[in-house]
Structure formats: structure tokens, C-alpha cells
């Protein structure tokens, strides 16, 4: 076997090992979130308003802390290595989630959720590791595969968590989630290979490129904003998905069942199509996929505002997932190809920060629009946001940079 064959086998093995790791991570993250309000309700005698507030705070504080802390871990990863940062994140998440099973009040939960956000960064470092260890001509395909792992885990997580919650207590479920992250830690430690980072060379590369001197900064910022807005519109329906499904069904049929299907459609489409579009982007150019994604998202969101059939609602949410499949791997590919070698992890961590902000903004936007107008207006506002973002990307970025 030649060195070239060994290198090819190494990066391909990494892709599938990291896929398994992010798949397990997706399960672990998503299996406890649907039951967080129910768990909080066991921690005290709360009114409906108090329970809603604490549930929202427990959700948001994790993402807010992640938004601030992620770039710090990204800088460390560029110096010390991405594998080490994946292990650090997995172990930190294991401990923080395991401890959530022992808390006695809501303030302890909020503190641990904040710590969870501060110790995170697993997925962004997984993406950075794959991006830096994969040949440039195959980066889009590899990142498309990784997207399917995390998204697939997020789809299965609530089902797994729901099944386990019928057998064990909420506290035990947190303990099991901590164990999953411990398994991920061991898995990454034993099986992922990363070309060793020379700390001296890495520090020199970091010294040569700072945020102020970063080339193509407007392009990178535009990609960060695109990630944030995609996450915002994707999360905007979260607070009202079951209520909107009930409205479409006119109280005929199982609201819970169909709400679950509607909520899972974007993720299911991403799992199916992300690897396909990742390979396509490597062949025809990622910029064309992003532009197609903008158009497809608008064409999916606008008719959703007028839908009267649950079947069409399911199909249109699936179409939203297809648009995500064109944009998310393409954005990460462009970040890889336009980041200096000494800043890849930092750039990915900045992108995660913007994504975390979108995770907070989305539910707030959805709730605000629903209160001011109605549920259907959320989809029109989402379409307008995506259309504006697409125009800005085309005129301010695509026409100024030679994207490939």
C-alpha cells in the first residue's frame, strides 16, 4: 500500500468514525430537550408563567454561552489540535449532563446548562477536523456526510428519549446521556487520527493571521450571517409547530403524531440529500448550490403560509430540509476553502457562535410574529429573511469573490 493509499484510507476512515460520533452526539443532545420542561416541573411548585420562563431560560442559556465561548476553544484547537478539543468537549458534556441528574433546584440546572454551553464545541471541531484532514476536492462530500450524522441523531434522539422516559426516570435519562458522551470521548480517543499539530508552527501561523488581518473577511462574515439566518428561520416554527398543525387539522386527527412528522421532515430531508449535494458541490461549485438553496427555501416557505392540507405541509417542510441540504454543507465547504490554515477551527467556531445566536433568535422571532399576527405570518417573514439574505449574498459576495 502506498502513502497515498494510506492517506486516502485515513481520511475516509476519519469521516465515518466522526459520523458515528456526531450521530451519537445528536442523539444525546436531542433526547433530553423535549422533556426539559417536564423535568423542571419536578424541581418546584411553579406557575405556568414561571415554568415557561425557566424552560425558555434553560434552552437559551446554553446557546448564549456557546456563542461567547466557542471562538476561544477554536483558537485553542488551531494550536493544540481538533481531536483534543473533541475529546475535551465530549468529556465536559459527559460530566455536566450526568450531574444534571442530581440537581435539587432549577438554579442548579441553569448553572449546569451554562457550563454545558461553555464546555461544548464538539460538532464545530468535528467539522474542522474533517475539513483539515480531507483532500480539498472531497471536502464538500465529507462535510455533507458529517451533517447527516448529527441531523440523523437529532431525529432519533427524541424517539429514543421518549422510549427510555417510559422505562426510567428523567434523572436516569440524564445519567444515560452523560454515559453516551463518555462513550463518544473514548471512541474519538481510540479511533480518530489527526496529523499532529506542531505547537510552535501553529502559533506562528496564528501570529501571522489575526481577525483584523484576515483575508476575505466580508465573505466569511457573510457566511456566518447566512448560517445564523438559516438557523433562525428553521427554529422560528419551534414554539408553535404543534399549534399550527392543530390549526391545519381543524382538530381532526392526532395533533401530536402529525406534529412529530412535520417537525422531523427538514431533518429527514437533510439526512437524505446532504451527501448528494455535497458531492454535487465538489463538481459544479458550491456557490451555485447556495444560490439554489436560497431560491428553494423561499419557494417552500411562501406556500406554507397558505397551506390547508397536512400532506402539503409535510411536503413543504421536507422541501425546507432539501434547501438546508444545499446550503449547510456548502457554507462549511466555503469556510474551509477561504480560511487560512492557522485559523480553520476559529472560523468554524465563529460560525457555531452565529448558529447559536440563530437558535436563540428563531423561537423568539416565531413567538413575536405569532403574537403580533398569526402562525402563518411566520413563514412569510422567514421567506422575506431568506430572500434578503440571498440578495445580499449574490450582490455583496458572489460578485466580488471567485467562489468555487
Automatic annotation (TrEMBL):
Record-annotated Major facilitator superfamily (MFS) profile domain positions: 14-401
Keyword check for Nucleus: no
Compartment list: Cell membrane
Any single GO CC term annotated in Swiss-Prot or TrEMBL for this entry: plasma membrane
Molecular function terms, GO-annotated: transmembrane transporter activity
Protein name: Major facilitator superfamily permease
Keywords, ordered alphabetically: Cell membrane, Membrane, Transmembrane, Transmembrane helix, Transport
Domain of life (superkingdom): Bacteria
Species this chain originates from: Fructobacillus pseudoficulneus
PANTHER family attached to this UniProt entry: MULTIDRUG RESISTANCE PROTEIN MDTG (PTHR43414), PEPTIDE PERMEASE (PTHR43414:SF1)
Keyword Membrane: yes
Topology class, membrane: Multi-pass membrane protein
Annotated transmembrane regions: 16-40, 52-73, 85-104, 110-130, 142-161, 173-192, 219-245, 257-277, 289-320, 377-397
